[in-house]
Amino acid sequence: MLGKLKKGEKGRILHISSIDHLVRRRLLDLGITEGSEVCLKCVMPFGGPIMVESCGQCIGIRRKEAIQIEVERL
Amino acid sequence: MEIALIGNPNTGKTSLFNHLTGSYEYVGNWSGVTVEKKIGIFKNNKDKLIDLPGIYTLNPLSKDEGVVTQFLLTEIVDKMLNILDASQIERNLHLTIQLLEYGKPTIIGLNMMDVASKRGIHVDPVKLSQTLGIPVAPVVARSGKGCTDLAATIIEGDIPNPNPSLVHYGTEIEEAIEKLEELLEGKQNHSVRWLALQLFEGNQYVKQYLYSVIGEERLNFFLQQIEKTINTNYQTSLEQFIFQKRKAKIDWIIADSAIKRNLTKTPLSEKIDAIVTNKILGLPIFFLLMYLMFMLTFDWLGFPLSDYLDGLITGPIASGIESLLSAVGASDFIHALILDGIVAGVGGVLVFVPQIFILFFFISLLEDSGYMARVALVMDRLMEAVGLNGKAFIPMMIGFGCNVPGIMAARTIETPKERLLTILLTPLMSCSARLPIYALFVGAFFVQQKALIVLSIYVLGIAVAFILAKVFSSTILKGETSLFVIELPPYRLPQFRALWRSTWDKGKGFLKKAGTFIFAGSVFIWLLSYAGPSGMDVALDDSYLAVIGGFIAPLFEPIGFNSWQAGASLITGFLAKEAIISTMNIIYFVPDEASLQGLLSNYFTPLSAYSFMIFILLYIPCLATTATIYKETGSKRWTVFSIGYALIIAYILSFVIYQGGKLLGLG
């Protein structure tokens, strides 16, 4: 799970289709989809969003969405 | 010739626009977010460049993205200029392919090559141009390098029609496109290939358009067929299938024209982010920045400058006008109109120009540096708790400058519920027009704690907005999912020219208002104060203004200000909040600001002054804001609601503060 990675850890997205379709589309727009490599950069406090880096760009998504994205640790 | 400028968000579109156009017509592009199309004229004074909001794809999720599709469907475009961020080229090419499918001559401005090469990505413009079959011009949008060549190519160059079939989508889809072509034969002028692919991707705007051409039933039947074919043959959705086909082509283009190397250098952005979006430090840093911004706007820079300007207007300028009027032998009426009405009214607003420009400067700085998106990230948890999302904080921040662009910036919020909530609550953000009023009152009553008192009012506005967000989202606006995915652009060192330009763009609205609206209002108010039921040149207490103000004054007694003067100024405040200052300046006509402040103490106590400021903060969105709310929501009901709830909340809060304060013995 992407939400379970630790700060600085890298992973590859295996499965993304269980998250809300609007969120999925927006991630797709940003080029983040199955097969993308991601790196967890920051975690906001109190269960806030996380910041991940993929292909040199940073995006913020909420943790509840991140835990629905399956990744394999790299 | 009409040339459309299209590109992903944060690719430098607006910078490029500014470099290509010498002049521009201003169309509601207030904030860093281009929320409406903006039309500029090329330096040859003939051809038009149309700046459109930044989009990732033509298939819109939010309202501002819809602007582009709508534009392509309804307007006539001669050529298109597509700006690409070389460091994010894969992602950017998705949009490029869709534009090529649209079928109009297109040219690419390849930006941020320097950023790309720092990341080890090298893009060869010549090769890319050969692969795509359209001209590619390298530019540096920030400095303007390459822009002259680019302009020349677009305007004079012979740009060939692109190959709209760059991507082959497989037999099923290609056949479906041909079938749609038959259905649409001769009924419209757009590229059928483009319409078909947008339809397959689920573009609602295109779907509606096609409904109007061939009818809902026929189109739905056609769409279902192709969806079913793709589902059974490939076990994937039509949308995903098209994306994969494009992606495969993009990978091929990249392999053909760009070399990618991986460097493991930590960019500066990441170092900054490690601090400002830090788990523990993130919020404190944000609040510290806000505090610094307010201290600079008020105590450290703003007040001294305003005082200086006030001295200038009430001193040399007023006496200059006075001697000029005496020299030309103006009548007493004209004399009074100009000095007591116009100079007092307009001048009273103009002295706050420095503070307003400083505030706008900082908002621009936050936008241009890339920090604003981090604010959304840092604030998301809090915003989520009250039923909004972090992106709603950006319209609110912009609302500190002026509520109108703030409300317009809410267009970037994807879900309708969160957007409506943001529109309804942004007017609670204390805009710069309200600032002169606070400045006047804190100058009179809270000399020791100026910035702190003003900050408390701003914070109160935010707090009320948050509480109401919670209340509204769990009562009248229940349901619907929340969506929060935000791109965090790399930090950029803002360039002074760009900063000044964006500050000026924002601030000149204020100057314009002073020159027109406040000017007319001042004359009108002065006339009301000059004339009364018993004739002209009456004592102020016998004027029409006193009659009108006295009529509503009793309503305000429970919240601490029952003078007719306060009542009258609140009425004019609906037109524009600055008008409150003009009105007061005219009512209490005094030689300078210091004596006005002295005079105010006859009518207000510190407690009732605070209650008055809170009331002004909340009581009603100004006329321009109300019009914007109506335009953005398209609903009279929500517009009336936004005025109604504000009045009620303002009254209740002022009542609590005033009566509570009195009970505590502060009055």
Structural summary, described in words:
By secondary structure, chain A is an alpha+beta fold. Chain A contains two helices and five strands, in the order E-H-E-E-E-H-E. Chain A has helices at residues 21-29, 63-66, and strands at 10-15, 37-43, 50-54, 57-61, 70-73. A five-stranded antiparallel beta sheet of chain A has the order 4-3-2-1-5. In chain A, a hairpin with a 2-residue loop joins strand 3 and strand 4 (57-61). Chain A is globular, with a radius of gyration of 11 Å. The model of chain A has no long low-confidence stretch (mean pLDDT 87). The termini of chain B are far apart. In chain B, the strands form two sheets. Chain B has a seven-stranded mixed beta sheet with strand order 2-3-4-1-5-6-8, sandwiched between helices. Residues 26-34 of chain B have low confidence and may be disordered. In chain B, helix 5 (125-132) packs across helix 11, helix 7 (171-184) packs antiparallel against helix 10 and helix 29 packs antiparallel against helix 31. Chain B has three domains: 2-156, 3-Layer(aba) Sandwich (Rossmann fold), CATH 3.40.50.300; 171-260, Helix Hairpins, CATH 1.10.287.1770; 284-478 and 509-663, no CATH class. Chain B has 667 residues and is an alpha/beta fold. Chain B has 31 helices and ten strands. The chains are: A alpha+beta (74), B alpha/beta (667). Chain A binds chain B through residues 20, 22-23, 25-31, 33, 41-49, 51, 53, 55-62, 65, and chain B through 56-57, 61, 87-88, 90-91, 94, 119, 121, 243, 269-270, 273-274, 277-280, 282-283, 373, 376-378, 380-381, 384, 390, 414-415, 481, 483-488, 490.
**Share of residues in helices of chain B:** 55-70%
- Main β sheet profile of chain A: 5 strands, antiparallel
Mean pLDDT of chain B: 86
Rg calculated over all Cα atoms of chain A: 11 Å
Strand arrangement within the widest β-sheet of chain B reads 2-3-4-1-5-6-8
Class from helix and strand fractions of chain A: alpha+beta
Q: Tell me what portion of residues of chain A adopts beta-strand conformation.
A: 35-45%
Oligomeric assembly? heterodimer
Tell me how many strands of chain B there are.
Answer: 10
Binding site for Mg(2+) 1 (chain B): 22
Keywords (chain B): Cell membrane, GTP-binding, Ion transport, Iron, Iron transport, Magnesium, Membrane, Metal-binding, Nucleotide-binding, Transmembrane, Transmembrane helix, Transport
Membrane topology (chain B): Multi-pass membrane protein
Function (chain B): Probable transporter of a GTP-driven Fe(2+) uptake system.
